[in-house]
Structure formats: structure tokens, C-alpha cells
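Not sure how to ask, but would you mind making up any protein sequence you like and the C-alpha cells describing how it folds?
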Amino acid sequence: MCLGYLRDESAWPLLVSRLDDVRNSVFIYVAWALLQLSPERASPIVVDQLLRRRDLNVLQASTVLRPFRRVLHEPLLLQLSLHLSLHVARASTNEAPGEPSGTDPAALAWLFRLGLALGLTPTVDTLRPWLQADQPMDLIIGAMRLLQGPEGLEPVRALANHPDWQVRTQVAVALGRLGDSNDVDLLMQLLMDSQWWVRYRAAQSLATTPFVDRAAMQARVSSLPDRYARDMAHQVFLEIPAPSW
């Protein structure tokens, strides 16, 4: 930290030599110090290490590196583009998902997680290949969490009937964050899901929607044939005060 605050360029080789320290806290502060010295020069090598260290405390890394989020976005987006290129190349040659030339699902899931922690905002088109029902569950969820803006609504809506309840749960969350009045019916459907977490997240999204007032929403919920959906909505509406828009 001291070397970082001093911004002494002669400390660069010493700091680089400690980037592979097995202690994650040491690594994070070494990364911070290098970014203090030269953000543009340090960002590619810091991101390379971030992607390698999948046991990292993401919250700590996000907090310490917060001042450098913007400069870290470029190499993160470059890595995401490389995964996209591999995905497109595999699709064009009809390779099976497990073929070596395909993208590594675990590495991509970790990239999504880091990107979320560091405020990355990829375009919908960049994320679209992993917003498909045939993709691994953790990649679908990771991509959905990175979506920003209504442009991502179409692929999210298409996943509302996904067989994995964890994906449906994330759909309910994403619709609450990105959706519009056209998504109320879909959230009502998710409120009647067989899985508790899907119902809970759908109820939370309905409770905070600006498109239907609370009284009208409660009336709609009361008319549902599923008592579990009604009970869930009632509980969540008690937990979350009506928004004052």
C-alpha cells in the first residue's frame, strides 16, 4: 500500500514479482499498488491474475479495486470477446460443447462473476449466446446478472419456462430489474411456480414494480387459483412497503 501511495515507478518490478503471492489479500493490494503506479499498464496483467485466482474473495477485490473499475473494464471485455469468438467458431464448425476449441464454462462463469463485482456492462449482443436454454445453468445466470437495460428483456422472457428452477429464479429477478408492464403476467406465472425461491423472487419483483399500484396488484394476486402463490405474495407485500413513485 505504501509503494502504491508513493507512486514510485522503480517499485514496479518488485510489485509484479509479488502478483502471484498465494495469499489473496497480498495479491489484491499488490494489484491495487500497480494500478496506482500505472492504471493502463497494470490493468491487463491484473485482470489476467484475477481470472486465474478463482478462490479469490470477490467482495474484497471489488472493494479494494473500486477506483480502477473503468480501466479494468477494457481487458475484461477483451476476455469476454475472446470467449465469444471461440463460441462462434465452435458453432460454425458444429463442434460438440465439450470440444477443446470451445470456451471453458468454468472460466467464463468466473469471468461473469468478476464482471458483475467490478460493474462491467457488456452489450446484450455480447451476452446473447449464453442467454440460450441449451447453455449451462451457471452461464445463463451469470449472463443474466450482467444485463443492463430493456434491450435484454427478449432473451430473459424466453427463459421463463427453463427446466432449471435456478434459471427461473434469476428470470424473476431480472424481470423485476429490467421489465415493464408487459412482464406482469409473466411474473404472475412465476409466482405460481412449484419452487419456493422462484415464487419468492417473483413476489419481490411484483411488490416493487412501478407499473401496477399495490392495491391493484393485491387484487390480481387474490384471484390466483394457487394458494401458495397467494400466501407468498401476501408475505412479501408485508415485508416490502408499497413504493411511492
